[in-house]
Amino acid sequence: xxxxxxxxxxxxxxxxxxxxxxxxxxxxxxxxxxxxxxxxxxxxxxxxxxxxxxxxxxxxxxxxxxxxxxxxxxxxxxxxxxxxxxxxxxxxxxxxxxxxxxxxxxxxxxxxxxxxxxxxxxxxxxxxxxxxxxxxxxxxxxxxxxxxxxxxxxxxxxxxxxxxxxxxxxxxxxxxxxxxxxxxxxxxxxxxxxxxxxxxxxxxxxxxxxxxxxxxxxxxxxxxxxxxxxxxxxxxx
Length: 237
Hints:
Blueprint (H helix, E strand, L loop, with lengths): L5 H6 L5 H26 L7 H57 L4 E11 L7 H13 L4 E4 L3 E3 L5 E4 L2 E4 L2 E3 L3 E6 L2 H9 L4 H7 L3 E12 L16
Antiparallel strand pairs: 1-7, 1-8, 2-3, 2-7, 4-5, 5-6
Helix pairs in contact: 2-3
Protein backbone atom coordinates (compact mmCIF):
# COMPACT_ATOMS: atom_id res chain seq x y z
CA UNK A 1 0.00 0.00 0.00
CA UNK A 2 1.47 3.44 -0.91
CA UNK A 3 2.44 5.70 1.90
CA UNK A 4 -0.13 8.37 2.72
CA UNK A 5 0.74 11.83 1.48
CA UNK A 6 0.85 14.85 3.81
CA UNK A 7 -2.66 16.10 2.68
CA UNK A 8 -4.02 12.60 3.32
CA UNK A 9 -2.54 12.55 6.80
CA UNK A 10 -4.06 15.98 7.47
CA UNK A 11 -7.52 14.60 6.59
CA UNK A 12 -7.02 11.79 9.09
CA UNK A 13 -6.07 14.04 11.97
CA UNK A 14 -8.37 14.08 14.96
CA UNK A 15 -10.76 17.08 14.93
CA UNK A 16 -10.44 19.68 17.65
CA UNK A 17 -12.86 19.87 20.60
CA UNK A 18 -14.38 23.09 19.27
CA UNK A 19 -15.06 21.48 15.89
CA UNK A 20 -16.76 18.52 17.55
CA UNK A 21 -18.92 20.78 19.72
CA UNK A 22 -20.10 22.87 16.78
CA UNK A 23 -20.77 19.77 14.67
CA UNK A 24 -22.92 18.26 17.44
CA UNK A 25 -24.90 21.45 17.96
CA UNK A 26 -25.53 21.98 14.25
CA UNK A 27 -26.41 18.33 13.79
CA UNK A 28 -28.94 18.46 16.62
CA UNK A 29 -30.50 21.61 15.23
CA UNK A 30 -30.74 20.12 11.74
CA UNK A 31 -32.45 17.06 13.21
CA UNK A 32 -34.95 19.25 15.04
CA UNK A 33 -35.78 21.21 11.88
CA UNK A 34 -36.20 18.01 9.86
CA UNK A 35 -38.44 16.54 12.53
CA UNK A 36 -40.57 19.70 12.60
CA UNK A 37 -40.97 19.63 8.81
CA UNK A 38 -41.92 15.93 8.81
CA UNK A 39 -44.47 16.49 11.51
CA UNK A 40 -45.96 19.37 9.53
CA UNK A 41 -46.08 17.26 6.36
CA UNK A 42 -47.78 14.26 7.98
CA UNK A 43 -50.36 16.14 10.04
CA UNK A 44 -53.97 16.12 8.72
CA UNK A 45 -55.51 19.59 9.08
CA UNK A 46 -58.84 18.84 7.32
CA UNK A 47 -60.80 18.70 10.57
CA UNK A 48 -59.18 21.76 12.19
CA UNK A 49 -61.26 24.95 12.48
CA UNK A 50 -60.10 28.20 10.94
CA UNK A 51 -59.31 29.93 14.25
CA UNK A 52 -57.32 26.88 15.34
CA UNK A 53 -55.38 26.97 12.07
CA UNK A 54 -54.56 30.61 12.72
CA UNK A 55 -53.23 29.75 16.18
CA UNK A 56 -51.34 26.79 14.73
CA UNK A 57 -49.73 29.04 12.11
CA UNK A 58 -48.78 31.52 14.83
CA UNK A 59 -47.27 28.68 16.79
CA UNK A 60 -45.30 27.53 13.76
CA UNK A 61 -44.09 31.08 13.11
CA UNK A 62 -42.91 31.35 16.72
CA UNK A 63 -41.15 28.02 16.42
CA UNK A 64 -39.46 29.15 13.22
CA UNK A 65 -38.34 32.37 14.90
CA UNK A 66 -36.87 30.40 17.78
CA UNK A 67 -35.10 28.13 15.32
CA UNK A 68 -33.72 31.15 13.46
CA UNK A 69 -32.40 32.57 16.74
CA UNK A 70 -30.82 29.25 17.64
CA UNK A 71 -29.19 29.03 14.20
CA UNK A 72 -27.82 32.56 14.58
CA UNK A 73 -26.49 31.74 18.06
CA UNK A 74 -24.86 28.54 16.86
CA UNK A 75 -23.36 30.31 13.85
CA UNK A 76 -21.97 33.01 16.13
CA UNK A 77 -20.57 30.36 18.50
CA UNK A 78 -18.92 28.54 15.61
CA UNK A 79 -17.39 31.76 14.27
CA UNK A 80 -16.10 32.68 17.74
CA UNK A 81 -14.53 29.24 18.15
CA UNK A 82 -12.88 29.45 14.73
CA UNK A 83 -11.65 32.98 15.45
CA UNK A 84 -10.32 31.91 18.85
CA UNK A 85 -8.48 29.00 17.25
CA UNK A 86 -6.89 31.31 14.68
CA UNK A 87 -5.85 33.77 17.40
CA UNK A 88 -4.30 30.95 19.41
CA UNK A 89 -2.41 29.68 16.38
CA UNK A 90 -1.13 33.20 15.59
CA UNK A 91 -0.08 33.75 19.21
CA UNK A 92 1.73 30.40 19.19
CA UNK A 93 3.46 31.28 15.92
CA UNK A 94 4.61 34.66 17.25
CA UNK A 95 5.83 33.11 20.50
CA UNK A 96 7.86 30.50 18.59
CA UNK A 97 9.32 33.17 16.31
CA UNK A 98 10.30 35.30 19.31
CA UNK A 99 11.85 32.28 21.06
CA UNK A 100 13.89 31.51 17.93
CA UNK A 101 15.14 35.11 17.79
CA UNK A 102 16.11 35.11 21.45
CA UNK A 103 17.83 31.74 20.99
CA UNK A 104 20.04 33.20 18.26
CA UNK A 105 20.95 36.25 20.33
CA UNK A 106 21.65 34.13 23.42
CA UNK A 107 23.64 31.60 21.43
CA UNK A 108 21.43 28.70 22.50
CA UNK A 109 20.35 27.85 18.95
CA UNK A 110 22.12 27.68 15.62
CA UNK A 111 21.88 30.41 13.01
CA UNK A 112 22.23 30.81 9.27
CA UNK A 113 22.29 33.77 6.94
CA UNK A 114 24.53 36.08 4.90
CA UNK A 115 27.55 37.74 6.42
CA UNK A 116 31.34 37.92 6.31
CA UNK A 117 34.22 35.57 7.01
CA UNK A 118 37.30 37.21 8.49
CA UNK A 119 40.54 35.25 8.06
CA UNK A 120 43.37 36.33 10.39
CA UNK A 121 46.92 35.03 10.10
CA UNK A 122 49.36 35.71 12.92
CA UNK A 123 52.90 34.50 12.06
CA UNK A 124 54.48 36.50 14.91
CA UNK A 125 51.84 35.32 17.40
CA UNK A 126 51.21 38.95 18.28
CA UNK A 127 47.41 38.78 18.15
CA UNK A 128 46.08 38.34 21.65
CA UNK A 129 42.69 38.03 23.36
CA UNK A 130 42.05 41.81 23.54
CA UNK A 131 42.70 42.07 19.79
CA UNK A 132 40.14 39.36 19.04
CA UNK A 133 37.67 41.01 21.40
CA UNK A 134 38.16 44.32 19.56
CA UNK A 135 37.45 42.54 16.27
CA UNK A 136 34.25 41.04 17.65
CA UNK A 137 33.11 44.37 19.11
CA UNK A 138 33.69 46.11 15.80
CA UNK A 139 31.59 43.52 13.98
CA UNK A 140 28.87 43.84 16.61
CA UNK A 141 28.84 47.62 16.24
CA UNK A 142 28.36 47.10 12.49
CA UNK A 143 25.27 44.96 13.11
CA UNK A 144 26.53 41.38 13.40
CA UNK A 145 23.72 39.22 14.85
CA UNK A 146 25.63 35.97 15.42
CA UNK A 147 29.39 35.41 15.67
CA UNK A 148 31.57 32.32 15.95
CA UNK A 149 35.36 31.96 16.06
CA UNK A 150 37.08 28.96 14.45
CA UNK A 151 33.66 27.34 14.17
CA UNK A 152 33.65 26.30 17.84
CA UNK A 153 33.53 29.40 20.06
CA UNK A 154 30.09 31.04 19.89
CA UNK A 155 30.34 34.64 21.03
CA UNK A 156 27.49 36.18 23.06
CA UNK A 157 27.18 38.94 25.65
CA UNK A 158 28.59 36.76 28.45
CA UNK A 159 31.54 35.36 26.48
CA UNK A 160 34.95 36.19 27.95
CA UNK A 161 38.33 36.46 26.16
CA UNK A 162 41.43 35.42 28.07
CA UNK A 163 45.15 35.05 27.37
CA UNK A 164 46.40 31.86 29.02
CA UNK A 165 50.18 31.55 28.55
CA UNK A 166 50.55 31.11 24.79
CA UNK A 167 46.93 30.18 24.14
CA UNK A 168 43.71 32.18 23.85
CA UNK A 169 40.55 31.08 25.61
CA UNK A 170 37.15 32.26 24.40
CA UNK A 171 34.32 31.30 26.68
CA UNK A 172 36.57 28.61 28.15
CA UNK A 173 37.40 27.12 24.73
CA UNK A 174 40.90 27.22 23.29
CA UNK A 175 41.14 28.76 19.83
CA UNK A 176 44.25 28.22 17.74
CA UNK A 177 45.91 30.24 15.03
CA UNK A 178 45.04 31.09 12.30
CA UNK A 179 41.73 32.61 13.38
CA UNK A 180 38.50 32.54 11.41
CA UNK A 181 35.74 34.85 12.57
CA UNK A 182 32.34 34.33 10.96
CA UNK A 183 29.63 36.94 11.49
CA UNK A 184 26.03 36.89 10.25
CA UNK A 185 24.65 40.26 9.20
CA UNK A 186 24.57 42.59 6.21
CA UNK A 187 27.72 41.60 4.25
CA UNK A 188 28.35 45.05 2.75
CA UNK A 189 28.05 46.86 6.07
CA UNK A 190 30.21 44.36 7.96
CA UNK A 191 32.92 44.33 5.27
CA UNK A 192 32.98 48.13 5.11
CA UNK A 193 33.34 48.40 8.90
CA UNK A 194 36.23 45.93 8.95
CA UNK A 195 38.08 47.63 6.07
CA UNK A 196 37.60 51.22 7.18
CA UNK A 197 40.85 53.21 7.53
CA UNK A 198 42.29 52.67 11.00
CA UNK A 199 39.81 49.89 11.63
CA UNK A 200 40.07 46.16 12.24
CA UNK A 201 42.13 45.19 9.18
CA UNK A 202 44.63 48.02 9.74
CA UNK A 203 45.06 47.19 13.43
CA UNK A 204 45.77 43.54 12.65
CA UNK A 205 48.32 44.61 10.03
CA UNK A 206 50.04 46.96 12.49
CA UNK A 207 50.68 43.97 14.78
CA UNK A 208 52.31 41.93 12.02
CA UNK A 209 49.25 39.93 11.02
CA UNK A 210 47.00 39.92 7.98
CA UNK A 211 43.22 40.09 7.85
CA UNK A 212 41.16 39.16 4.81
CA UNK A 213 37.43 39.93 4.71
CA UNK A 214 35.20 37.80 2.49
CA UNK A 215 31.53 38.47 1.83
CA UNK A 216 29.54 35.23 2.07
CA UNK A 217 25.99 34.60 0.87
CA UNK A 218 25.30 31.92 3.47
CA UNK A 219 27.02 31.27 6.78
CA UNK A 220 25.85 28.44 9.01
CA UNK A 221 26.72 28.55 12.70
CA UNK A 222 26.10 25.38 14.68
CA UNK A 223 28.26 26.06 17.75
CA UNK A 224 26.26 26.94 20.87
CA UNK A 225 27.23 29.11 23.81
CA UNK A 226 27.49 27.67 27.30
CA UNK A 227 24.98 30.04 28.89
CA UNK A 228 24.82 29.99 32.68
CA UNK A 229 21.79 30.97 34.72
CA UNK A 230 22.24 34.30 36.56
CA UNK A 231 23.17 33.85 40.20
CA UNK A 232 21.96 37.19 41.51
CA UNK A 233 19.87 38.92 38.85
CA UNK A 234 16.12 38.25 38.84
CA UNK A 235 13.34 39.46 36.52
CA UNK A 236 11.54 42.58 37.72
CA UNK A 237 7.98 41.98 38.92
